[in-house]
Amino acid sequence: MAGSMSMGSDVVAVLPEVLLLVGALVALVGGSFTPREQQWRVRLVTVAALVASAVAAGFGLASPAGPVFSGTYDVDTATGVVRLVVASSTLLVIGLGVEEVAGHRQESETYALLLLSSTGAVVLGGAADLLVLVVAFLLGSIPLYALVGQARTGAAAEGAMKTYLLGALLGIVLMAGVTVLLGVGGGEAGYAGLTAALAGAPAGAVAAGAVAVLVGLMFKAGGVPGHFWVPDAAQGASVTAAAFLTTVPKVGALVAVFRLVEAMPAAVDVQLVVAVLAVASMTLGNLAALGQTAVRRLLGWSTVSQVGYLLLPVAVVGRTDLAEPALLFYLAAYAVTNLTAFAVVAALPGRESLEDYRGLGRAHPCLAGALLVSLLGLLGTPPTSVFLGKLLVATAAWDGGAGWLAVVLVVNTVASLGYYLRWCAPALTFATPVDRSPTVRRWAFQAATLGGVSSILILIVVSR
Fold it and tell me: What distances in angstroms separate CA 209 from CA 5, 171, 186, 197, 313, one per listed residue?
């Protein structure tokens, strides 16, 4: 009886995840019986599931349940933030993609895939067990492959193939790392006992296993060395899928990296590996973005660089109390800011290059304002929320004894000026607008406006 009561309370504790999964199943099955012209009903189901999950996450954040399911899953503040950010981000993705997805022959499947991948991202962020980590990785990755390839174009096929091949390869690497850690740790999979189990294990084997798992998670985060798929997928997929894949998966993945590094024994300096990956991601992402003229490919490389910034607090896990709050705030700020940029792109179909945005401020001042907020936000300037996020992660790195990482962040931020301003400059000129999109998509326009305002409001609310 006590066991059944405990199981019942555990299920209640993970209600946000259950709601996402149930919503995905209803969308998948219900869409099969819904006429194509009435697929909007599936969209309503999807939105309802996301809203319900966010509300449940809000209540759960007020009183975290702690470890559940025999300690294999953590329902704590970090999991609560991941739940809220994932649900809110997916809602914004659906908003910016209404016109693009509506009427598509795979509309209901799109919503089901978004919910399934969102569920995987949330479970990845809350996983406190190596085996749960593997399941969450697969649950979040497999729907992603289908989302990228749905556009049915040559570019989408290339992006889907690269995403699948790299995901399969690094998924195997991750599982190999888990196998090594289980082997040298005496079969202990839970993070709570993993630190002690690995304390007496050979340091080289522990390091090899941990690095393999980290490399696998970098595929989900979109950071070096698992970043190769991101630019191609961002450019080839639909705008809806591109916005989702550059935002939602990394929310769960980076919190998963944080938890894994925290569970490693002190004798193995995994933080140094994370620091190297952070520098490589931010530097390579920025250097590659400097030469881009296609807006979605530019945003793809931008997201690679952002992973580098987000890894800074992970590199000082256990050395400062600022690490976790800095990571969680930056994730929330980045999500809304990045999605705002994609919402502007979605609102103006047909504008694929930087030059296509010339005169945007004259033709569509509200969209130009949202674009300016998002790009300056990704750059990290006030009054946007990412400015505070960068300040927090730099402070955490400095406080954790890795001041050199803060210096690298500043240098890379200055370097990123080159490509963000190359987009802002033509968009804000009063030259004759380039007429690439005679109509503006209304839902995407509203999503861009909401995202731009939210990016600033988050900073104001937190500052108070």
Answer: 37, 13, 14, 14, 21
Confirm whether 371 is domain-assigned.
Answer: yes
What interhelical angle do 385-399 and 403-428 show, nearest 10?
160
The C-alpha angle with vertex 67 and arms to 66 and 71, in degrees rounded to 5, equals 170
Question: Distance between CA 171 and CA 175 in Å, rounded?
Answer: 6
154's tokens: 């040559």
**Distance from first CA to last CA of the chain, Å, rounded?**
48
Q: Which amino acid is at 427?
A: A
Whether residue 1 is predicted with pLDDT greater than 50 in this model: the reply is no
Counting the structural domains of the chain, the total is 1
Residue type at 32 in one-letter notation:
S
With contact defined as beta carbons under 8 Å apart, do 96 and 339 qualify? yes
pLDDT digits (tens, 9 = 90+) for 143-184: 999 999 998 899 999 999 999 999 999 999 999 999 999 999
Tokens read off for 237:
């997929």
Average pLDDT for the chain = 93
- Provide the whole-model pTM: 0.96
Question: Is it the case that residue 450 has pLDDT exceeding 70?
Answer: yes
pLDDT confidence of residue 438: 63
Q: Looking at 63-190, list the stretches that DSSP marks H as alpha helix, in order from N- to C-terminal side.
A: 77-96, 98-101, 107-126, 130-149, 154-184
Give residue 249's region: left, alpha or beta (phi > 0; psi -120 to 50). Answer: alpha
Q: What sections of 185-311 are H helices per DSSP? A: 191-199, 203-221, 229-236, 239-245, 248-263, 270-289, 295-310
Query: Nearest CA to 134 among 82, 76, 77, 181?
Result: 181
The answer as to whether 426 is a domain residue is yes
Among residues 331, 458, 327, 461, the alpha carbon closest in space to that of 395 is found at 327
Q: Write out the residue range of the structural domain in which residue 321 sits.
A: 270-464
* Residues across the chain: 464
Residue 232 inside a domain? The answer is: no
Q: At what angle do helices 203-221 and 270-289 cross, to 10 degrees?
A: 30
Share of the chain above pLDDT 70, in %: 96
Banded model confidence at residue 2, pLDDT cuts 50, 70, 90 = very low
Q: What is the 3-state secondary structure (H, E, C) of 31-80?
A: HHCCCHHHCHHHHHHHHHHHHHHHHHHHHHHHCCCEEECCCCEEECHHHH
406-429 confidence digits (pLDDT tens):
999 999 999 999 999 999 988 887
The stretch 81-101 carries a mean pLDDT of 97
| Higher per-residue confidence, 6 vs 41 | 41
Q: Residue 119 falls within a domain, yes or no?
A: no
Which residues partner with 129 through β-bridges? 190
